[in-house]
Amino acid sequence: MNSIHLLVHIYGGQDLFVNEYRTLLSDRLLLSLDYDVTRELRNLELLKLRFGESNLHYCEVMIKDITDSRRVNGLINNKLSIKKQQQGDGDDHENDVIINSFILSHIFWPSFRIETMKLPAFIQKKLDDYNKSFQEIKGMRELKWCHDLGQVQLELEVNDQILNFQVSPSRASVIWQFQNKSVWSVEDLSTELESTPSVIRRHLLYWAGQGVLCEEKEGEVFKIFEKEGMDDTYHEGGVFEEESAMSSMKSQKENDLEVVWSYVTAMLTNLGPMSLDKIHNMLSMFMLSGPGGGGGAGQSSCTVAELKACLDKKVKGQELMCTGGVYQLCKNN
């Protein structure tokens, strides 16, 4: 029995397996910031031999969207560069910002959570100019931006330190508001950014966790963190920068391990107790090797050691039992 057959068995049928593959493919493609889909295309061709082209048509369109995006994005940025040279230099903010995009055929992709938020005016102008150029190329078709799916390379100066972050446009918009006003209430900021208090609070708590903001009045007010008078609950010096630079990768790794756990649960439920090596071998073929192999930077990957740490954590939480190196679900699961 090969690995694909086992995975189809775990999911309970071919349709469920293909739908799950489509969801995982979506996550991988959106991490391919260099538009490189070589490995995913090769995997898709192999799966088409097993399941047929018609069952994987949506996945084929998704990959084509990424390859087409590379070409269209290049055309648009060339047009914008020429216009910028003809009109002369804009302000400093506009000179620093370059927009790159994935242009997706939304009916073929899994549903995305759409988070609406008002962006800084100069960023919105950039997006509007990009959209206008896209309309000129594609015959008046219009782009709908998904602010919470993008990534922004952000550099902040906090307490004489330069910190680098990679965050969503929504999260960047929240911290941008503190440039001209050092203290914001959750309510006022949600009104300013035309978003909900729960969404704004989530982003504010992220920045507080990075040591950029601090909370006041039981989390209803946030202000720029100032080093003077800080207590032992805050880290010193360059630790902020190290944690900030790794925050996006760490968050992605945590998400990956949650996906791993869902697979492990399904395998142990359907196939019974398994050793660490057997679990890893089954997972690595399908979902753990990033494009290009070896779990490159920015791609989904999980080593045997990371998988063992994840499983051992579940053992401590009494969700798994491990006897003689063989894992099985606890009976109360």
Q: Rg, please?
A: 23 Å
Residue share in helix: 40-55%
**Count, helices:** 12
Q: Taking all residues together, what is the mean pLDDT? A: 80
What shape does the CA trace take? flat
Domain count, please report it: 3
Structural class: mainly alpha
* Cα distance spanning the termini: 27 Å
Strand order of the largest sheet: 3-5-4
Q: Main sheet, how many strands, which sense, barrel?
A: 3 strands, antiparallel
Low-confidence stretches at least 5 residues in length (pLDDT < 50)?
Answer: 229-250, 288-300
InterPro entries: ANAPC2 (IPR044554), ANAPC2_C (IPR014786), Cullin-like_AB (IPR059120), Cullin_homology (IPR016158), Cullin_homology_sf (IPR036317), WH-like_DNA-bd_sf (IPR036388), WH_DNA-bd_sf (IPR036390)
Organism: Amphimedon queenslandica (Sponge)
Pfam families: ANAPC2, Cullin_AB
GO molecular function, one term: ubiquitin protein ligase binding
Protein architecture, described:
InterPro entries: ANAPC2, ANAPC2_C, Cullin-like_AB, Cullin_homology, Cullin_homology_sf, WH-like_DNA-bd_sf, WH_DNA-bd_sf. Residues 1-208 form the Cullin family profile domain. With 333 residues, the chain is mainly alpha-helical. It is built from 12 helices and 8 strands.
Topology diagram in text:
Layout: H1 3-11, H2 14-30, H3 38-51, H4 57-87, H5 92-96, H6 121-138, E1 152-158, E2 161-167, H7 169-176, E3 183-185, H8 186-192, H9 197-209, E4 213-216, E5 221-224, H10 239-271, E6 274-275, H11 276-288, H12 304-316, E7 320-323, E8 326-329
Antiparallel strand pairs: 1-2, 3-5, 4-5, 6-8, 7-8
Helix pairs in contact: 1-10, 2-4, 4-6, 7-9, 8-9
Domain Cullin family profile: 1-208
Protein name: Anaphase-promoting complex subunit 2
GO molecular function, one term: ubiquitin protein ligase binding
